[in-house]
Design goal:
By secondary structure, this protein is an alpha/beta fold. It folds into two domains: 5-168, 2-Layer Sandwich (VC0802-like); 180-405, HUPs (Rossmann fold, 3-Layer(aba) Sandwich). Helices cover 38% and strands 21% of the residues. The chain contains 14 helices and 15 strands. The chain has helices spanning 20-34, 59-66, 85-99, 122-136, 190-200, 218-231, 246-255, 261-279, 299-306, 322-331, 335-338, 360-368, 373-382, 400-406; strands at residues 5-9, 42-45, 50-53, 72-81, 105-113, 140-142, 149-156, 159-163, 167-171, 180-184, 204-211, 237-244, 284-286, 313-314, 385-390. Strands 1, 2, 3, 4, 5, 6, 7, 8 and 9 form a nine-stranded mixed beta sheet that branches. A six-stranded mixed beta sheet has the order 14-13-10-11-12-15, sandwiched between helices. α7 (246-255) runs antiparallel to α8 and α9 packs parallel to α12 (360-368). The longest helix is centred in the middle third of the chain and has 19 residues, at 261-279. The protein starts with a strand and ends with a helix.
């Protein structure tokens, strides 16, 4: 079946009142970026629908891209016809012939009419088209609840639209409508999931990744970039900020008692991320912490670490079980990458028995007695590298045989 357009429904945007135009505008921009490379189609965002007129572009390929755009509740491949019943009857025959087959099936007609000047009202359209289908397809019978086929008809001012599918979209809010946040991206399972969930609520994320050569390898850094590329389709491209952390980790290892190594190290990570947030005009910090999952994620640890900033810290996976987070990671195709065993800076110098209930006053004390804390932070900031990562970028050979050789 040759569809003429994809009709997009906004869902949650309908609750946004006076901000609705801004949300639709942002969604239009995100859809435009997602559909880059489709040169013939045209996008028409309207108050209650977005119409993507294909003009010959591949509808299936377009829908594959739309599936990853937040802010879309659902969408339908659609045919637009002139506002006369001969055209509607002709297209109804073509659509039903394409999907009905020869086996007995049930169907119903579901009409919506926003143009109240059209000659037939909703009930009359349902009856007319129902009779037409019954006359032309003897294997079909009417069933109002849970039919095999639902032919949806929308009578609008500019034409009549026919469709038989309603495909679930990504939901959520358009990325960017909630402002910008800095995601503390490790190489593990949790932080990419946190990034995905933050984007789903409209947050435009930038990745902050700490690396510590020679203790961490180029493969660990490239793994983080590859994870970023996995999330890029939801927004088009993502800024990746790599932060050198070797000097700080070595100094913490030298100056801080073993039990507080992880606490003080993470205090530095959070301070650096917050300073980068200011530089990049972000509004919040996002991480993949889940309560009680590891020593640094007890409530006492969070208090001792969060002490260095008053910036909001968003933890999208904070109450999830590990099995829930893993399932999310599999759903967004980051799990296999995340479990590749390249050490990141969170795992090096990890003490065998970190404090699970660190005291805030002790964490402050051990950090304050370190030499040249401000200099350590500034030298790390001076060494950051910023790049843009797209979904088509690749940084790591993910073939399992190659990985086995590297290890």
């Amino acid at each position: 079946m040759q569809y003429t357009e994809i009709m997009v429904r906004y869902g949650e945007l309908s609750t946004k009142g006076k901000n609705r135009r801004e949300f639709i505008g942002r969604l239009n921009g995100n859809v435009t970026k997602a559909l880059h490379g489709f040169d013939q189609l045209r996008i028409h965002p309207k108050q209650d629908r977005m119409h993507i007129v294909l003009n010959g572009d591949d509808g299936k390929a377009v829908m594959g891209r739309l599936h990853e755009v937040f802010g879309i509740e659902n969408y339908s491949p659609t045919v637009k016809v002139a506002k006369n019943m001969d055209a509607v009857h002709d297209m109804t025959t073509k659509i039903m012939a394409d999907i009905a087959g020869d086996e007995p099936k049930t169907f119903k007609i579901e009409t919506r009419r926003s143009d109240h000047h059209f000659e037939l009202d909703t009930n009359q359209m349902n009856l007319d088209l129902g009779d037409w289908v019954l006359d032309h397809f003897p294997n079909l019978t009417v069933k109002m609840k849970h039919p095999d086929i639902t032919l949806r008809v929308e009578v609008r001012r500019d034409g009549i639209y026919l469709m038989n599918q309603k495909i679930k979209g990504a939901g959520g809010l358009p990325v960017g409508t909630a402002g910008k946040g800095m995601l503390m991206l490790s190489g593990g399972i949790d932080s990419p999931v946190a990034g995905y969930l933050a984007m789903k609520r409209g947050i435009d994320i930038e990745m902050v990744h700490f690396f510590s050569p020679p203790y961490t390898s180029d493969n660990a850094l490239n793994k983080a970039k590859e994870l970023t590329a996995k999330l890029a389709p939801y927004v088009g491209k993502i800024t990746f900020i790599q932060v050198p952390f070797t000097e700080i980790q070595e100094q913490v290892k030298h100056d801080v008692p073993e039990g507080y190594l992880m606490t003080v190290q993470r205090r530095f990570m959070l301070q650096l991320t917050d300073k980068i947030r200011v530089m990049r005009h972000g509004l919040a910090i996002i991480n993949g912490e889940a309560v009680g999952q590891v020593a640094s994620q007890t409530l006492e640890s969070m208090v001792a670490i969060n002490d260095v900033t008053t910036t909001p810290i968003i933890r999208p996976v904070v109450t999830m079980d590990k099995t829930e987070i893993i399932q999310h990671a599999k759903d967004i195709d980051t799990y296999d990458l995340s479990i590749m065993p390249f050490e990141d800076c969170c795992t090096i110098f990890a003490p065998p028995a970190p404090k699970t209930h660190p005291r805030l006053d002790r964490a402050r004390y051990y950090e304050d007695r370190m030499d040249d804390v401000d200099g350590l932070i500034q030298r790390s900031l001076d060494g950051i590298k910023i790049s843009e990562i797209k979904s088509t970028d690749h940084f790591l050979n993910t073939d399992q045989d190659v990985i086995a050789e590297l290890l």
